[in-house]
Amino acid sequence: MIEVSWRVPLFDLSVDEEEIKAVEAVLRSKWISMGSITQEFESEFAKRHGVKYAIAVTNCTAALHLALKAIGIREGDEVICPSLTFVATANSILYVGGKPVFAEIISRNDLTVSPEDIEAKITERTKAIVVVHYGGYPCKIDLILEIASKYNLKVVEDCAHAPLAEYKGKKVGSWGDIGCFSFFSNKNMTTAEGGIITTNDDEIAEKVLLMRSHGMTALSFDKFRGHASGYDVVELGYNYRIDDIRSSIGIVQLKKLDAFNRRRKELTKLYIDNLSDIDGITVPFKNLSEDGDLVSSYHIFPILISRDDLKRDFIRQELSKKGIQTSVHYQPVHLFSIYRSRFGYEKGDLSLTEWVSEHEITLPLYPSMKEEDVFYVVDCLKDIFRK
Ligand SMILES: Cc1ncc(COP(=O)(O)O)c(C=O)c1O
After folding, report:
1. What is the atom index within ligand 1 of the atom nearest the CA of 62?
2. pLDDT digit string (tens) for 191-210?
């Protein structure tokens, strides 16, 4: 067993007897790999996100890989994406031989990718845009789709943080050509490891379904049910299948997701109200989260330290001494060694992204967090800022 010593961890898992019973039922059924439970999970997820297809896979990184393959990205193609994201967003572009071209964020208040900078970075080689709904806050996907249509580009939405988030009345993952969600254990809903691809495009769905399982025209489950005997291999595919054990957890978590997201929103508001009198802390998305156009999934709670005499890492250390676990979202991808050495990116390329990356702290946020935990974190911050 892992011993958890944090008084307030960054994240805590919300699972109970319901998930345990669902897993037990799958184990007792003796069909534990991908089958009817996965189909049920996919169909519920598609319904909740207003899309024609939801195709579950091993994780969101695999989802992004398949997404870029399915929209036809290949050697030498440029794909624009943010740098303020988890490295998987950009790595998936490398998997298919593409070149990630990094775009700036909008501002210190809106950390999502800037439509203006996306347009400025388009060249003759640009084939697609990968957007990220950072922290569960939808990016300006309507403007980005306008740009995409003007230049004939495909759009992939990295929705790892944003299940059930909405922009202008439409769920994220239903705007672009294809959406990719993560069910890793620290996400808004989990299957331990897991991911799902959403699309309304028949051709993309067909390609993803094939590539999820070796490019084969029949699945083991079809054979088990007597629906298929032989098969052909028509594409270069992978084994990116999820399994029914994970999907059974996903079905239960999806039912709870509205309540999880609501609780995250309440805690976020509590943080915002109580942090407002600390000079030197600003909260990105603070005003946007009240905007009627936008429904966030409140995946994380990022703050920015804007006082020059207090260093971000010092504050994190002080919080850690008080038993509060924090994180940074994110180190800019363009400055990782592999991206510097392969593409020549360097410090100064994206000054706003770099500034945020140096001044951001992610505070604890999870549905089972108590109000007194928020007060404790805020009081500790007040102490640090007073000294
Ligand atoms: C923005 C973003 N994209 C992609 C991923 C990759 O997800 P997974 O761990 O399911 O592969 C993550 C995971 O943290 C993420 O935060």
Report:
1. 11
2. 999 999 999 999 999 999 99
Instruction: For ligand 1, say whether the CB of 61 is within 6 Å of any of its atoms.
Output: yes
Both structure tokens of 24: 């037990």
Segment 345-385, tens digit of pLDDT: 999 999 999 999 999 999 999 999 999 999 999 999 999 99
pLDDT band (50, 70, 90) for residue 230: confident
Longest CA pairwise span in the chain (Å) = 73
Q: Is 269 a catalytic residue?
A: no
Cα separation, 84 vs 356, in Å, equals 9
Q: What are phi and psi of 247, to 5 degrees?
A: -60, -35
Nearest CA-CA partner of 249 in 83, 38, 65: 38
Could you tell me the distance, in angstroms and rounded to a whole number, from the CA of residue 184 to the centre of ligand 1?
A: 7
Catalytic residue among 140, 154, 187, 207: 187
Q: Which atom of ligand 1 is nearest to the CA of 88?
A: 4
* CATH number of the structural domain 257-386: 3.90.1150.10
Domain 17-253 fold is Aspartate Aminotransferase; domain 2 (3.40.640)
The closest-lying atom of ligand 1 relative to the alpha carbon of residue 61 is 11
> Measured from the CB, is residue 184 less than 6 Å from ligand 1?
yes
pTM of the complete model: 0.97
Domain boundaries, the chain: 17-253, 257-386
The Cα 28–Cα 301 span in angstroms is 40
